[in-house]
Amino acid sequence: MAGCANPAVVTGMFSLTWYTSHSSQNPTFEPTIGLQRGFEGEKGTVMVEYAGIYDHRQPSQILDGGGQWRPTMGQQVDFQAGFGLNRSSPEYFFGLGYSFRLDNLF
Fold it and tell me: pLDDT band at residue 5, thresholds of 50, 70 and 90?
């Protein structure tokens, strides 16, 4: 994608968590991998992501997609929707959010 102003980016993360109050449920391993791409300059992003949660119970795996749109530098609207890939995952889910910044408030 040489010369493309908003190339696709592969992202990922590995998380390993121990809950001190629930030592019998340790550890929890959460890998994620995603693909995202910006649009309209710096105003928006779309993405698709795989996430898994592996602990002492049956693994939970999801596939989701979503995006963010920033109409101004101080506001953001985002959405996400996805579904589970196995029985221990949620059947489907969605989310919608709005964020704003209060720069120089005081």
Answer: low
Query: By residue range, what is the domain housing residue 41?
Result: 9-100
Alpha-carbon gap, residue 91 to 95, rounded angstroms: 14
For 48-60, write each residue's pLDDT tens digit.
999 998 877 788 9
Q: Is residue 59 part of a domain?
A: yes
Task: Record the pTM.
Answer: 0.73
Contact criterion met (CB below 8 Å) for 79 and 96: yes
How many structural domains are present in the chain?
1
Query: How far apart are alpha carbons 67 and 45 in whole angstroms?
Result: 5
Among 96, 50, 99, 91, which Cα is nearest to 74's? 99
Question: Would you give the DSSP letter of residue 104?
Answer: T
Tell me what the pLDDT averaged over the chain comes to.
87
- Flag whether 106 is in a domain: no
Does residue 1 sit within a domain? no
- Quote the CA–CA distance of 67 and 72 in Å, as a whole number: 16
In a domain, 18, yes or no: yes
